[in-house]
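Q: Hi! New to this. If I give you a protein sequence and the SMILES for S-adenosylmethionine, can you show me the bound structure?
A: Yes, paste them in.
Q: Okay, here:
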Amino acid sequence: MNVKQFDQLDAFLEAMAPVHDDIQHEMATRAADEGFPIIGPAAGAVLRQFAVATGAERIFEFGSGFGYSATWFAPALPDDGELILTEIDANEMADAETYLEQAGYDHLITYEVGDATEIINRHDGPFDVVLIDAEKEQYVECYELVRDKVATGGVIIADNALTAGDMDTAGIMDAVIEGDTDPALDATAEGIRRYLQHIIDDAGFVTSVLPVGSGLAVSVKHNG
Ligand SMILES: C[S@@+](CC[C@H](N)C(=O)[O-])C[C@H]1O[C@@H](n2cnc3c(N)ncnc32)[C@H](O)[C@@H]1O
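A: Thanks. Here is the predicted structure of the protein with S-adenosylmethionine bound:
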């Protein structure tokens, strides 16, 4: 697939995605203005699909920004469900609280400011859905910290499996295809490559990469 076709596929998938509600529209406009990397509507729809399909009651996010991805999960939860947001930047989290309260989701949400790799240790499972969307270098660590807390049939979704800024996507793909465990990649790309290899090698989960948004690595627990 050449780059033009990839752009067209991206636009097509966005056109197929649910339309933003007013608050999502405000958040997406802000993200575009600030160049802040939100997951976007096509990937957001996938988050909601997995929350609905698993009958999710508890969801954990590594890296919540100002709460956009949470707007895709929250409506899929029951009234006594829980969505745990983590964000290292206190200002982003304060804005998440404002948006999500406005959207009427506040009763579902636990807001945690700090390093998600520490916060996860304060929360027991089981989680039905987990989103990993923080530092790419820490993806494997996030996965290992949460894997045993995921319910059977639950899912870990990692964003940026295909793109993130100027990440060397072709280099990652070549390394995965060739089984090259020591390619010359920068820290971000190496973080994603290591993550992809790690989840391929985990027999307790069945994994696929969906070329939606920035690429979603989806790992469903079946006998872990
Ligand atoms: C790509 S953004 C998250 C976007 C959000 N998931 C969405 O789609 O709306 C990544 C966020 O992770 C946060 N972050 C980075 N390292 C973190 C860590 N160790 N713990 C918690 N948050 C972290 C960053 O501050 C940033 O806001």
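A: The chain has a mean pLDDT of 95. Let me know if you'd like me to explain how to read the tokens.
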